[in-house]
From TrEMBL:
Cofactors, names only: Mg(2+)
Family: Belongs to the shikimate kinase family.
Protein name (database record): Shikimate kinase
SUPFAM superfamilies for the chain: P-loop containing nucleoside triphosphate hydrolases
Cofactor: binding comment: Binds 1 Mg(2+) ion per subunit.
UniProt entry tagged with the keyword Ligase: no
Annotated InterPro entries: P-loop_NTPase, Shikimate/glucono_kinase, Shikimate_kinase/TSH1, Shikimate_kinase_CS
């Protein structure tokens, strides 16, 4: 279905960034399927490496340790081509991470904070979920460095979002010289 988009991507990976709960994991899986890409999720990789859940990592070794693990996982995954990578909401906070993200096409999924609050109200797996406004304030200018910003309506389905991404990808394909090579 998306053969021409696949061709125009030249195997370049796609990084989904944005606040917790915007749908990076949900949309990433669907998008990867449509593109015949593999799917990775930095949060899942961290849990696999540590054999701990994210709340356990935060509680037992702190956010700084989590950010270090996140950085290491990103560095390792950045060698992969033809992949959609759902990142953790805070991956943008470390400047060094941008040199890896910029090896791919970076898409910012942006959803109103009120919608995020509703989605995450019952969620016990996101240690920073009670600080959404503060985090968004801190991160907006960082997320804005993405190649593409997708403003998602409250009632937009994951499938419709993927369709929109597929339509927009050709408008933001970078030329070879624009990718950072670390
Ligand atoms: N477009 C959507 N419409 C309705 N619900 C959605 C949509 N996208 C995601 N969700 C729901 O919102 C919740 C959070 O989605 P998801 O886990 O994909 O977010 P995330 O961006 O990966 O979050 P995190 O950064 O914490 O990993 C899930 O329960 C998911 O089913
Ligand atoms: O926004 C954040 O800082 C986070 C988002 C999640 O994806 C996880 O990476 C973790 O819960 C922290
Ligand atoms: Mg996720």
């Amino acid at each position: 279905m998306s053969t021409s988009i696949e061709q125009s991507l030249h195997g370049i990976s796609i990084y989904l960034i944005g606040m917790m709960g915007v749908g990076k994991t949900t949309i990433g899986k669907l998008l990867a399927h449509q593109l015949n890409y593999r799917f990775f999720d930095t949060d899942v990789l961290i849990e696999r490496v540590t054999q701990q859940s994210i709340p356990e990592i935060f509680a037992e070794s702190g956010e700084d340790n989590f950010r270090e693990l996140e950085h290491q996982v990103l560095q390792e995954i950045s060698v992969e081509t033809k992949s959609v990578i759902a990142t953790g909401g805070g991956i943008v906070e470390r400047q060094i991470n941008w040199s890896y993200l910029q090896q791919g096409l970076i898409i910012w999924l942006d959803v109103e904070v009120e919608v995020l609050k509703q989605r995450l109200a019952e969620d016990q797996n996101r240690p920073l979920a009670d600080k959404l406004e503060l985090l968004l304030q801190k991160r907006s200018s960082l997320y804005a460095q993405a190649d593409l910003r997708l403003k998602i309506a409250a009632n937009q389905t994951p499938e419709a979002i993927v369709e929109q991404i597929l339509e927009l990808i050709p408008t933001v394909i970078k030329s070879e010289s624009e990718f950072s090579h670390s």
